[in-house]
Design goal:
Blueprint: E1 40-41, H1 53-59, H2 69-76, E2 80-84, E3 87-90, H3 92-111, E4 115-116, E5 122-124, H4 125-130, H5 133-136, E6 142-145, E7 151-154, H6 159-167, E8 179-188, E9 203-213, H7 216-237, E10 242-245, E11 255-262, E12 268-272, E13 279-281, E14 300-314, H8 316-321, E15 324-326, E16 332-334, E17 336-343, H9 344-355, E18 372-375, H10 387-400, E19 408-410, H11 418-428, E20 432-435, E21 447-451, E22 456-460, H12 462-469
Parallel strand pairs: 1-19, 4-8, 18-19, 18-20
Antiparallel strand pairs: 2-3, 5-7, 6-7, 8-9, 9-17, 10-11, 11-14, 12-13, 12-14, 14-17, 15-16, 20-21, 21-22
Amino acid sequence: MEGLLTRCRVLPTLATCSCQPSRYVPGRFHHCAPGRRQRLVLSRVFQPQNLREDQVLSLEGKVSDLTCKSQRLMLQVGLIYPASPGCYHLLPYTVRALEKLVRVIDQEMQAIGGQKVNMPSLSPAELWQATNRWNLMGKELLRVRDRHGKEYCLGPTHEEAITALVASQKQLSYKQLPLLLYQVTRKFRDEPRPRFGLLRGREFYMKDMYTFDASPEAAWQTYSLVCDAYCSLFHRLGLQFVKVQADVGSIGGTMSHEFQLPVDVGEDRLAICPSCSFSANVETLDLSQMNCPACQSPLTETKGIEVGHTFYLGTKYSSIFNAQFTNFQGKPCLAEMGCYGLGVTRILAAAIEVLSTEDCIRWPHLLAPYQVCLVPPKKGSKEAAAAELTGHLYDHITEAVPQLCGEVLLDDRTHLTIGNRLKDARKLGYPYVIIAGKRALEDPAYFEVWCQNTGEVVFLTKEGLVELLTQVQTV
Ligand SMILES: [Zn+2]
């Protein structure tokens, strides 16, 4: 973030600094006083943008594939950049949003007792051979061989690794259970046809949690606890979701649910009962089953993007790796397991897919890379006198609303008109865009405020702005 701070020696016109030259350390970014002068300026954000659709397609090695809305918007405004098929550079705005999402996920997982770990991406072949998934996963598993000829895969999921880790702890007692271990790491899947940007890539971030319980009853309780945490997460993000019964696939186990965001571009078909709470991935239903198994109402079909998946595993993995604990009688027993995934980069792209308009990105308010964009007048314009006022407003907001420290970006490209910069700001989806236009020269000064999530445009004084922004929630 420091790279975006204005430097004392190369001050853009707007970021005047009245600090003492003696306190200036050459070559370092300057912090005059906490919360002051650290103005984040847009011209320094690394943001390759304005790619035309044909450039996007050629960068991705595609000729005619139409991309989906989130992929197109994310490429156009410089949130991601293609690296190779199914792999993207995540650029500064995206990383900020991703880090916020991870913070929300951490809060939810830790609220139910989750402990964060971080396992290697390289996963030894022996572990996968033990469960036979080395063969079952087929070509989706990205395999590598080291200089000694030893085989590994780049982990698409970590049931084997975590169960072997827990099995190595010979002193595990029932008193230490339930054990909920999770990580947020890069995962790899050699997709035959990667598409839709971050929605279906070959390298992506996933949150995967693995739970170990002393009995099937306790494991079921943990299962519903994690499902509740997922519901809480999607509520906080303001995303409509459905929890559907799902196929266990190559992970295995006896029960599974998917968390789906209903949207047309989704690749999963969901059957939903309009009369009761029944909903299922069509994969799990008999093709002739057109009526709800619970209440017999006709099922309606919709498409969804899978953003979360939960599995009740039982002892499928603990029996193979001998992951045991000692029970209250001192006897060794196999742990009852569950595993729980969230597609982290996919949630980000799916949220953009469902919330955005055709031309403008909309973020879940907690995840917006920056909450506020300040637009000062154009250099040389009639309103140019309000430029200094914008700088003061910047400092005032970050001081008066502490949670917005680091969340306010100043669009210092004052060679552009306010209109052009407003268009960019709306496209990028900052929840609040504040413009110092004509009315900023009135006494008291009024600023034009675009509240993008509600679509309102209001004129507020400095005090009114602070009152509005105090309500902004951040993570
Ligand atoms: Zn029903």
